[in-house]
Write a structure and sequence with these properties.
The protein is of the alpha/beta class. The protein is built from eight helices and 15 strands. The strands form three sheets. It has a seven-stranded mixed sheet with strand order 3-2-1-4-5-7-8, covered by helices on one side. Strands 10, 11, 12, 13, 14 and 15 form a six-stranded antiparallel sheet that branches. Strands 6-9 form a two-stranded parallel sheet. Helix 1 (about 10-20) packs parallel to helix 6 (about 150-170) and helix 5 packs antiparallel against helix 7 (about 205-215).
Length: about 325
């Protein structure tokens, strides 16, 4: 029987595990993060902590499992060269992004922010080069105008899980999926931190601000990059939802609050357009209407939204 080591989390891991068992393969061990353990235990699976694969002796422990394939279904573990050499047939990673131009942890956020029309998912062989191994399969799909960071990532995980399940029969039958090398001239890497430090730049065009806010929107979950934020004076605020405002006829500095009330706050942008911030996120994570909340804090039309002068701003 073909023997697998699975590393991952959530429903993608559960579905791949179930598919392997249904098709007659065996699973030597499962490694997952603690938030996945309850559901896995209910399935009769007793996982090891995924973090233990970072320990120096992890290769020695895995060596005794005699595995044919290592499948990384949904985890952020970076595997050591020693671990990658242990599977007899190979190691395959699912990456929620279109390789080679969508490497890194925040490729989906940047796809929205950059106004790209499509996104994708990739299965590839794992090598010592992060997200750089030969591609087994890639599938692209359209980015919707309503997609947020959460919904785009969720759609990518769904499609990637399907891709993994499609190749399981071949893997269990002893097959080696065909692959092709990545075109490194198209390689782009997006680091695992918030674009622009999570700060809204009101000097941007209105469209870019709207895309930025939805790219970092993971509601009702907590954003791994943190919510999009801005300052009024020295006080920090977090944006959740925004919509297009109206053209600005007079000469107004970007970031100026044009109107504040029950419908939200209208803010001037760098292209003589405006955006309306409808909701704000409190530090505890709950949502409140932005207008009444800021009015209670003494904010009025004419005040400026911007960036704290001590903030260091980078692109990614």
């Amino acid at each position: 029987m073909t023997n697998f080591l699975l590393v991952g989390n959530g429903r993608p891991l559960e579905e791949v595990y179930t598919g392997i068992r249904r098709l007659g393969g065996t699973v030597a061990a499962v490694y997952a993060d603690p938030e996945s353990w309850n559901r896995l235990n209910a399935m009769g699976i007793h996982p090891e902590p995924a973090s233990s694969l970072r320990e120096k002796n992890s290769a020695a422990r895995v060596r005794g499992l005699n595995i044919d394939w290592l499948l990384n279904v949904q985890s952020k573990i970076i595997f050591s060269p020693e671990l990658l050499k242990l599977p007899k047939l190979g190691a395959i990673n699912f990456h929620p992004g279109p390789l080679p131009e969508g490497a890194g942890l925040t490729a989906h956020e940047w796809a929205i922010l950059l106004g790209e029309k499509s996104f994708g998912v990739t299965l590839h062989y794992m090598t010592e080069e992060l997200d750089g191994g030969p591609i087994i399969a890639r599938r692209d799909f359209e980015i919707q105008e309503t997609d947020t960071g959460l919904t785009l990532l969720a759609r990518a995980w769904r499609l990637g899980t399907d891709l993994f399940c499609e190749i399981l029969r071949s893997l269990i039958g002893g097959g080696m999926p065909e692959s092709y090398p990545q075109d490194k001239t198209r390689y782009r890497y997006f680091a695992g931190k918030a674009p622009y430090g999570g700060l809204i730049h009101f000097e941007w065009p209105a469209r870019r601000i709207l895309d930025f806010i939805r790219a970092l929107n993971y509601h009702p979950l907590r954003s791994p990059s943190g919510p999009p934020r801005f300052y009024i004076g020295k006080d920090e605020y977090f944006a959740h939802q925004a919509e297009s405002g109206h053209p600005i006829e007079e000469n107004v500095e970007p970031g100026t609050i044009l109107k504040i009330g029950e419908e939200g706050i209208g803010v001037a942008c760098g292209d003589r357009q405006s955006v309306r911030l409808r909701d704000t996120i409190l530090p505890a994570g709950s949502l409140v209407p932005a207008g009444p909340y800021l009015l209670e804090r003494g904010i009025t039309a004419g005040d400026r939204c911007g960036i704290h002068p001590k903030e260091k701003i980078g692109q990614c």
